[in-house]
Each structure stands twice: as C-alpha cells, then as structure tokens.
Amino acid sequence: MNPQTTNGNQRADASPSATSPIASGGQLTKAEYERLANLRYVLRRFARLTELEGRKVGLTPQQYQLLLAIKGFPGRDWVSITELAERLQIRHNAVIGLVNRAAQRNLVRRDHDPEHPDRRIVKVPLTPEAESLLRKLTAALRNERQRVRIAAAEADRG
User: Domain segments of the chain: what residues?
Assistant: First the structure.
C-alpha cells in the first residue's frame, strides 16, 4: 500500500498495491481465501465483542471509538474536531454531534485554545471518567486483540 498523509496523519491508500495478487491479475489459493475469511471473521468478532463490552461500561460503539481516537492520537492528549473526523472517517458535523453528546456525559471536554485567535478551533481531551472507562474496556478486550494480531499475521503470509 502507498501511505499518504492527510492533516499530518498517515492513512492507507485504498487501491491495491502493485505486488498484490489482485493488482497483478494473479489468483489467490484456497488457503489464502481461508486466511482472509478467518481474518474477516476475527475482525467482525472483535467489533461485536467491543460493542458488547462497551455497553457493559455504558459506552456506545461510537463513544468507544471516539475515546480511543483521542487517547491514541499521536503526540498529545487532545484532538481537534477535524482530526477526529479524519480518524473516525465520518463527517465533520457528525463529529460535532458525537463530541457534544460525549461532553454531556462528562466523557470529553471542549476547550478553546487561548493561543489561537480562531475560537472555532476546539481541543477535545478526555475526562478522568472517560480514561477509567477506556482502561476497563481495553483490559476486557486484551485477549481478543491478540486473536486479531494472529489472524492478521496469518492472512499476510503466503
């Protein structure tokens, strides 16, 4: 894949790489299809378990993704609305609504940057309550993340 940069963040190009069997017109073997199908199954299972575990701690799947995007943002402990839209791959207006609902639940804050003259620029950090919920959820999903790593490695070989 060809990495491209958007807003300083790396993302993968959606087109197949020149060395992939799809781009070169090659055929996948039955074993390769089986590994890909297993990866898709493990990813879907991970998504479903994430949803179930998130609901146990009172988070919707979208809220969990929001908290994870903020906590996992490289180099700092806050994220802008534009960066969240890119990370979550949703429209800017949808992020604003998601952040507003999360702020009402005391999961995030909306801080204006005192050094920036444009008051529309908002820093979105996590609250201590959100940090605690995120720790609980990530701990509950530790084994499933390992299954995803193994399945991804298996799908890449061959």
Answer: 29-156
